Amino acid sequence: xxxxxxxxxxxxxxxxxxxxxxxxxxxxxxxxxxxxxxxxxxxxxxxxxxxxxxxxxxxxxxxxxxxxxxxxxxxxxxxxxxxxxxxxxxxxxxxxxxxxxxxxxxxxxxxxxxxxxxxxxxxxxxxxxxxxxxxxxxxxxxxxxxxxxxxxxxxxxxxxxxxxxxxxxxxxxxxxxxxxxxxxxxxxxxxxxx
Length: 194
Fold this sequence. Notes:
The protein has helices at about 1-25, 30-40, 45-75, 80-95, 115-140, 145-160, 170-180, 190-194, and strands at about 100-105, 105-110. It is mainly alpha-helical.
């Protein structure tokens, strides 16, 4: 029976330690996922509610700061990151919604929810435009490495655009073909005869 108590105490301490480590590393979304799972199992856990409240605010603050910076910077190659940040905000919000309202020390905590769809669509469209234009531009270098990079960029444009560019499939095929390494294989009998 003592080993059972020891095991339970060890597991509890390990979960607390790993939560602290996740928090210290800034792995907020993993910690949010863990807190949400725990709150679904035990909605009255104030410890998980406090951790969720803290990490949800920290994660959103971090992402919003990064978004402000990227938008201020105005670099066209950051639309992919902007798209991912807005998706993170939306997904995190959806995840936390499962366990609201939070009850912490007699207080009830709710969050204002934001509709990020317009920002997601804008970022997606701008990312597609950037990858399409950049892929075409680097194809003009006319070397294998550039075609390989263009292939990657144009595939990303296709993921984001949903077929908005008519010549995109043709450009992808061309960059793939021109970026391939080819080796001629000769017949061994012909080589021996020559």
